[in-house]
Amino acid sequence: MIEVNNLVKKYGDFTAVHGISFQVPKGQILGLLGPNGAGKSTTMKVLSCFMPATSGDVKVAGYDVFDDPMEVKKRVGYCPEQPPLYLEMRVKEYLEYVAALKKLDKSKLRERVDFVGEHCGLTQNFRHVIGTLSKGFRQRVGIAQALVHDPEVVILDEPTVGLDPVQIVEIRNLIKGLAGTHTVILSTHILPEVVMTCHKVVLINRGTVLADDTVANLTKGGGGDLEQAYLRIVTQDIHNHPTAPAGA
């Protein structure tokens, strides 16, 4: 469903992503794991056609992000770390607005808004002004807007940052429920997110891929502890390339 080959993204003289490659099969959840500044958000912005790549070959649902960006956008739902919300709008009004922007047929628009509202636990909040909601419910609205046009691919950037423990569990369960019907890329630097939600992990540091495997394989021989495996891989990379620049 997603194919990334030798992706490079430069900002002037600074290279944020250094030729990374990975694939995501249809219906799976992939965790982009790495410290702050690893290049996770930049990679996701390229995949969602939010920004262009400098070079490489990137395909989403069979469409090239360079040649067919509009076709890619039709098939991708994207929720950045700070969801693109209009705080003065009511929840249902906002979701209907996003659905209209996505050019959903009027006959299907209300059906999809009601579906994502129920799926994301927002039905009771439809008439609430978004600015009055808690951070956890705003995050739900952000994910709902990414799902409203029923995309094949869902891209979520740090979806649980700043949430309390109860909200984190609720958002995790929501994300896990997307598997099968959607292909999901989830970026995080929080290790439990990967263990609890993802089929596969791509570990990125300073714009390069250090590991691409299942959680079980990454932790093999280390007592099943992802934190130990993560620290070992990142520390080894820093030791081997002490002057390498950080990503973005």
Structural features, described:
The protein is of the alpha/beta class and 248 residues long. It is 36% helix and 25% strand. It has nine helices and ten strands. It has helices at residues 40-47, 69-74, 91-101, 106-119, 135-147, 165-176, 191-197, 215-218, 226-240, and strands at residues 2-11, 14-24, 29-33, 55-60, 63-64, 76-79, 153-157, 183-188, 200-205, 208-213. The mean pLDDT is 88.
Helix % is 25-40%
CATH topology of the largest domain: Rossmann fold
CATH superfamily of the largest domain: P-loop containing nucleotide triphosphate hydrolases
Strand order of the largest sheet: 6-7-8-3-9-10
- Overall structural domain count: 2
Shape verdict: globular
DSSP strand (E) fraction? 15-25%
CATH class of the largest domain: Alpha Beta
The succession of helices and strands, N to C, reads: EEEHEEHEHHHEHEHEEHH
- The counted number of beta strands is 10
Q: What structural class results from the helix and strand content?
A: alpha/beta
Give the name of the CATH architecture of the largest domain: 3-Layer(aba) Sandwich
The total count of helices amounts to 9
Main beta-sheet strand count, sense and barrel state: 6 strands, mixed
Distance between the termini: 25 Å
Average pLDDT works out at 88
- Which regions contain 5 or more consecutive residues with pLDDT less than 50? none
- The radius of gyration is 18 Å
